[in-house]
């Protein structure tokens, strides 16, 4: 922690000598040119300490943009393997439950939202509840049948919309027609 702060301060002090100060208080552009930072208008009585902290933070952000390795997505979650399909809005998670059950979950990125009126002192108008669609397949080892659950996930509940009995490779004629499954505190 201390060595990281020292390196940051060293980079900031060397860049202060090498780079000219930006004269505009409205915009400062990073050296990469990929982002534009909108600086807040500087008050007339800004302390030198505040100016130095802001300059150091800007330099650290620029350094991280230029030299930090890109973030690698997780490929494991507990006993499950996460498969991200680049360019698609779906993530597949595969794993085993027990010795014989194979579980595959396909989840969309946020595909729906619901506007909920905000309550209380900190309300800024409208809050949003985000939604995910899930398809959960459970297969028994080498058997030829599996269960498929079509689910609707909200932050505080999970609804099982449909349940299908599938034969490997082809869909059943009719879905399960029993009662709806709803898990959560508001259903």
SSE diagram, text form:
Layout: H1 2-18, E1 27-29, E2 36-38, H2 48-67, E3 76-77, E4 80-84, E5 90-97, E6 101-108, E7 112-117, E8 126-140, E9 145-154, E10 157-167, E11 181-184
Helix pairs in contact: 1-2
InterPro entries: MAM33, MAM33_sf
Protein name: Mitochondrial glycoprotein family protein
Provide the CATH architecture of the largest domain. Answer: Roll
Strand content: 35-45%
Structural class: alpha+beta
CATH superfamily of the largest domain: Mitochondrial glycoprotein
N- and C-termini, Cα separation: 47 Å
CATH class of the largest domain: Alpha Beta
Largest sheet: 9 strands, antiparallel
CATH topology of the largest domain: Mitochondrial Matrix Protein, Chain A
Report the mean per-residue pLDDT as an integer: 71
Residue share in helix: 10-25%
The rounded Rg comes to 26 Å
Give the tags.
2 domains, two-stranded antiparallel ribbon, 187 residues, nine-stranded antiparallel β-sheet, 11 strands, Mitochondrial Matrix Protein, Chain A, alpha+beta, 40% strand
Structural summary, described in words:
- The protein is built from two helices and eleven strands; from the N terminus they run αββαβββββββββ.
- The protein has helices spanning 2-18, 48-67; strands spanning 27-29, 36-38, 76-77, 80-84, 90-97, 101-108, 112-117, 126-140, 145-154, 157-167, 181-184.
- Strands 3, 4, 5, 6, 7, 8, 9, 10 and 11 form a nine-stranded antiparallel β-sheet that branches. Strands 1-2 form a two-stranded antiparallel sheet.
- Helix 1 (2-18) crosses helix 2.
- The longest helix is centred in the first third of the chain and has 20 residues, at 48-67.
- The two termini are 47 Å apart.
């Amino acid at each position: 922690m201390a060595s990281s702060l020292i390196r940051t301060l060293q980079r900031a002090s060397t860049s202060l000598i090498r780079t000219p100060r930006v004269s505009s208080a409205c915009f400062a552009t990073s050296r990469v040119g990929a982002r534009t930072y909108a600086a807040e208008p500087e008050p007339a009585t800004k302390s030198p300490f505040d100016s130095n902290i802001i300059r150091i933070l800007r330099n650290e952000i620029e350094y991280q943009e230029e030299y930090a390795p890109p973030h690698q997505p997780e490929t494991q979650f507990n006993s499950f393997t996460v498969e991200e399909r680049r360019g698609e809005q779906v993530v597949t998670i595969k794993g085993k439950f027990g010795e014989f059950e194979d579980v595959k979950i396909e989840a969309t990125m946020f595909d729906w939202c619901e506007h909920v009126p905000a309550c209380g002192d900190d309300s800024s108008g409208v809050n949003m509840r985000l939604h995910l669609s899930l398809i959960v397949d459970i297969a028994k080892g080498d058997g030829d049948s599996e269960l498929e659950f079509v689910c609707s996930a909200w932050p505080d509940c999970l609804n099982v919309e449909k349940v299908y009995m599938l034969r490997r490779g082809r869909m059943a004629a009719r879905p399960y027609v029993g009662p709806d499954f709803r898990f959560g505190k508001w259903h």
